Amino acid sequence: MQILISTFSQGLIWSVLALGVFITFRILNFADMTAEGSLALGGSICALLITNGVNPLLSLIISALLTSLAGLITGLLHTKLKIQPILSGILTMIALYSINIRIMGKANLSLLGKNTIFSDFENALPILKENPTFSAFAIGITICLILILTLNIFFKTQIGLAIRATGDNEQMMRAQGGNTNLKKIIALMISSLLCGLAGGLIAQSQGYSDVNMGTGTIAIALASIVIGESFMTFFKMKNKILSALICAVLGSICYRIIIFIVLNFGMNPSDLKLFTAFVTAILLGLPNIKKIKEAKKNA
């Protein structure tokens, strides 16, 4: 039971990253690679603040807010310098590698013996000290619920609807006098903020921050999103954005369960990134394969 709860807890924590990538990948239709650097940036800032005696929760909030600047840089590179979306994200991601080392002063920073939001929660409820996995689960589900409700409300506002319209049809949005560049920057900043929040949570959960902790995470997030989309048929809500956000979280949990299963079948942990890339490629390619088959039948 503890192993199962631990797997669910990890899925909930990593789902924050999936929500961030979902905004750029599905809503904005922007191929953004900033997420890998933003995750490590959030973890680096959070770890640095905690080691300097800052409250873990406050450290998490500050790191998330500062990480949103990474999205701002990517947005400016794309909108002002007219660099392609994927290249803008790659440039920011490369720069963040050096910045993260500068922040921590080394390649990784340990939080051993330091208070985290998880240890603070356990201290607040002594009963959880015997079952620490429950604290991670409670914190993870609380944060996910808050984020889902907040994002659902935001994307119903005028700015949120404008961001969705920009992702659906940028030319039409411009024709109606909308500032699409500003909407892109806002969406990228929100995405980076969530990725930074995920980085801070992961750093506190695993007990250290590492400059390479973001490597390959974009594939994990995409796999979670695509897996989550398979649940869409079960969530036939009128509110499509809410159902999509819920499914992104469920996809992250399912991905962690899949990882747990393949590891128990004897897969080498060093092969996980290869497995993730393989699964993501298949999941992303399946819809296109179906379309090709249907086109051949109709022809």
What labels describe this entry?
globular; two-stranded antiparallel sheet; 12 helices; mainly alpha; 299 residues
Task: Sum this structure up briefly.
The chain is mostly helical. The protein contains twelve helices and two strands, in the order H-H-H-H-E-H-H-H-H-H-E-H-H-H.
Number of domains: 1
Write down how many β-strands occur, each being a DSSP E stretch of 2 or more residues: 2
Report, as a whole number of angstroms, the end-to-end distance: 53 Å
Binned strand content:
under 5%
Describe the structure.
The protein is mostly helical. The protein has one domain (2-218). Helices cover 76% and strands 2% of the residues. The chain has twelve helices and two strands; from the N terminus they run ααααβαααααβααα. It has helices spanning 2-27, 34-51, 56-79, 85-104, 117-124, 132-154, 158-168, 170-175, 180-206, 217-229, 240-264, 272-298, and strands at 108-110, 208-210. Strands 1-2 form a two-stranded antiparallel sheet. α1 (2-27) runs parallel beside α6 (132-154) and α2 runs parallel beside α4. The protein starts with a helix and ends with a helix. The model has no long low-confidence stretch (mean pLDDT 90).
